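Hi F.,

I've been meaning to write this up properly since the lab meeting, where we talked about keeping a consistent format for the predictions we share between groups. The idea is simple: the sequence comes first, exactly as it goes in, then the structure tokens exactly as they come out, then a line or two of notes. No screenshots and no reformatting. I'm using this chain as the first example so we have something concrete to point to.
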Amino acid sequence: MKSKILPLLILLPLILTPASYAQTPPELPGGQNSGYGIEPGTLYPGSAVLEILAAAENEIDAAVEEAYAEGYKAASLRYAPDTAYYAALSEGIKRELAFEKKKTKWFWPSLFIAGGFSFFGGFLTNALVAR
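Output, unedited:
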């Protein structure tokens, strides 16, 4: 009998713990939205609500476009010198890369040609000396 009671006593706090955390949600005060002219408990027609939402969407879109334009202008003015510097740097690096490509254009073909002449010269020297 004791062996059955001990596990139940151990599990009892686990069962009771979630119930101790239960709370009732706080109630909102009655005149919370009075600053917007909305009366709680009053029904508004759907067309009025849609007009208000459309006006809010238009204002939000206009504010976003204005903020984007101001931020773009500020960034353009702030980073214009850096942009010019990096454009010039990029052009210089492109020129150096083209120059290096021209320098090494004939490296591998000349290496194979020199290797072929060396092999042929060694073969010819061996043929002349061995006789």
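Notes:
Residues 46-103 form the longest helix (58 residues).
The chain has a mean pLDDT of 81.

If this format works for you, I'll send the rest the same way.

G.
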